[in-house]
Write a structure and sequence with these properties.
Length: 367
């Protein structure tokens, strides 16, 4: 089967490796139909596979996908077979203190698709726990269904934001997650949505998604001062910039709330402790969603989010995956969401050479 490996920064290789034939107990064997490029994927692309013990072990990216179930393991609902599904990319251990308390999203022992040592979805077959899979309604096309995982995160962020009806919110970062967040907030009764992004076409996309204002970061603070109490009730940072947190703090009203859900490229955040303390801001970090994937599927199917087709701006075949990564890395050609279309897997006998080449794969494949 085909699999895409990332080694050094911005270096991808399409390899032939042995395919998995069966699903383990309580798992399903999946064949991805489309894979969406997410923030973690692009971050890994920029940085390359992690260095372990002095060398890089090539990794397989991909955590947002639509797949067909081609085999089921013992204990799995047989009606899942041959169905299209999406899946939570995070598999908690179900044994630790956080899991037993019902906070599986905080599990320190979880495995995440596309985060070493767990191989991601950019391969023609892999297995994953059946309980993490959600069926996709027949009327929902693949290019919309692939947005369900980021939509589930947008819903989780909105849950934590606790924005009053007809309240105000600033959203920093207008990539596909920021746009889905804007759509979610608009559909749930937020009054004023101030979108902040340094890229002009993404500001235009924010207005299309339902933002009431869309400005460059340099103009955001002046606009926020015109809001009641001179700031937004809540500011949400979903950027990849370490400066996003500082802007979020500056846009929030006294006694307001800041949600930090972005992944800064340099793994740092900056804001004025004095400013945040004097205004008694509540600062809340968000890492991953918690039991919101089925809500996202129902939300999407309800039609409350309106048209989402325009968010998927580019599609690439698997053999052009490097072009997809380069495009979204450089934010060219109006790109918002890139999809990689996976070719159908065709069973074949695996040669001894391909088995040898796959040794590294077996070390990083899901347990």
């Amino acid at each position: 089967m085909k699999a895409v490996f990332l080694s050094t920064p911005e270096t991808l290789e399409l390899r032939d490796v042995p395919a998995r034939r069966e699903a383990e107990a309580h798992e399903v064997l999946l064949e991805p139909l489309v894979v969406g490029l997410g923030g973690n994927d692009v971050l890994h692309y920029r940085q390359g596979a992690p260095v372990q013990d002095g060398f890089r072990r090539p990794m397989i990216s991909g955590s947002e996908f639509v797949a067909r179930v081609v085999a089921i393991g013992r204990g799995v609902d047989p009606t899942l077979l041959h169905r299209r599904v999406v899946a939570s990319p995070v598999s908690p251990c179900q044994r630790c203190e956080w899991c037993t308390e019902g906070n599986q999203h905080l599990c320190p022992n979880s495995r995440t698709l596309g985060v070493p040592p767990t191989a991601g979805a950019m391969q023609q077959r892999f297995s994953w726990p059946a309980t993490l899979c959600v069926r996709v309604a027949e009327k929902v096309p693949n290019h919309q269904a692939v947005l369900l995982v980021p939509l589930s995160l947008a819903i989780h962020i909105a849950d934590h934001a606790n924005i009053p009806i007809m309240g105000s919110v600033a959203v920093l970062g207008c990539g596909h997650l920021g746009l889905l967040l804007i759509k979610t907030l608009r559909a749930t009764g937020v009054g004023t949505i101030l979108a902040v992004d340094g890229v002009p076409y993404r500001r235009e996309a924010a207005l299309q998604a339902g933002a009431t204002h869309a400005v460059d970061p340099t103009a955001a603070e002046d606009l926020a001062r015109t809001l009641p109490r001179s700031g937004a009730d809540v500011a949400i940072d979903v950027t990849n910039s370490s400066a996003g947190s500082r802007t979020a703090v500056s846009l929030t009203k006294i006694g307001g709330r800041v949600i930090l859900a972005g992944i800064p490229d340099d793994n740092r955040i900056f804001f004025s402790a004095l400013e945040a303390r004097r205004r008694e801001l509540v600062i809340h970090f968000v890492n991953r969603p918690h039991n919101t994937l089925r809500r996202a599927e129902a939300f999407l199917e309800s039609g409350a989010l309106g048209d989402l087709d325009w968010m998927v701006t580019h599609r690439f075949p698997l053999d052009q995956v490097a072009d997809a990564f380069r495009l979204i890395r450089r934010m060219k050609d109006g790109v918002i969401k890139c999809l990689v279309e996976m070719p159908a897997y065709e069973p074949a006998e695996e040669s001894p050479d391909s088995v040898a080449r796959a040794a590294a794969v077996q070390l990083t494949a899901p347990a």
